[in-house]
């Protein structure tokens, strides 16, 4: 067994024995897109707690800075690089700022995204194209910009995690655009795992089921984002519960009988970036509470 493998095992053992106080990601640099709120924010705070130097990105600069301030208030290290991931110039800016500040990139979590639902026969070109842009093209550009700093011969841990959805695995009513984009994430993940595996870069995706975020709460709650000057309503069109499904539906479709939390979703991302998963690459981890089994 190599010295680096022994070192990783030692890290895990030390952490689990509460004798590794610096955390699972101590000194490693992690970029998490869309981390101004929801799953991304939970992941940013969890990564910082585990010792990572975190780059918070969000289209909303105020929200990004708020997460950074929260991390710093608990003695963590973070910077904000706000911007629109679909802007072709943003990926290079993001990577360059990360390198200028921390000198390296260990982990990229491509989490930024949203839904723009509609039945396929009424879906506009704009609805279709923006989903591919934010969920496929933006991550591609970010990873491509990071290639000179990750596709290198190094024993430093390096991972890429693509956030996907069960909509991409099974399809979903009213989400032909979103489901197609998330299905594309799987092909990107597997291909990149094969191309970059020789450089010890692990690439995985995580497919979330029902996680309690603004994308799964009732559409009537009024959550929305602006896309190209147009307001896009987020959420599920229902008035039943705070997570967009009634209790009977939960029990029938989700064996654990509830929606997941943002913190639980973040923990699954941490697993794929941590030394707990050093022989895991090219896979899609389903985090669903058992839905779909």
UniProtKB/TrEMBL annotation:
Annotated keywords: NADP, Oxidoreductase
Gene3D superfamilies: NAD(P)-binding Rossmann-like Domain (3.40.50.720)
Ketoreductase domain boundaries: 28-221
UniProt-recorded Gene Ontology molecular function terms: oxidoreductase activity, acting on the CH-OH group of donors, NAD or NADP as acceptor; quinone binding
Alphabetical list of PROSITE patterns matching this protein: ADH_SHORT (PS00061)
InterPro entries documented for this protein: KR_dom (IPR057326), NAD(P)-bd_dom_sf (IPR036291), Sc_DH/Rdtase_CS (IPR020904), SDR_fam (IPR002347)
GO biological process annotation, one example: fatty acid biosynthetic process
SUPFAM superfamilies: NAD(P)-binding Rossmann-fold domains
Similarity comment: family membership: Belongs to the short-chain dehydrogenases/reductases (SDR) family.
Protein name: Ketoreductase domain-containing protein
Organism from which the protein derives: Spizellomyces punctatus (strain DAOM BR117)
Species lineage: Eukaryota, Fungi, Fungi incertae sedis, Chytridiomycota, Chytridiomycota incertae sedis
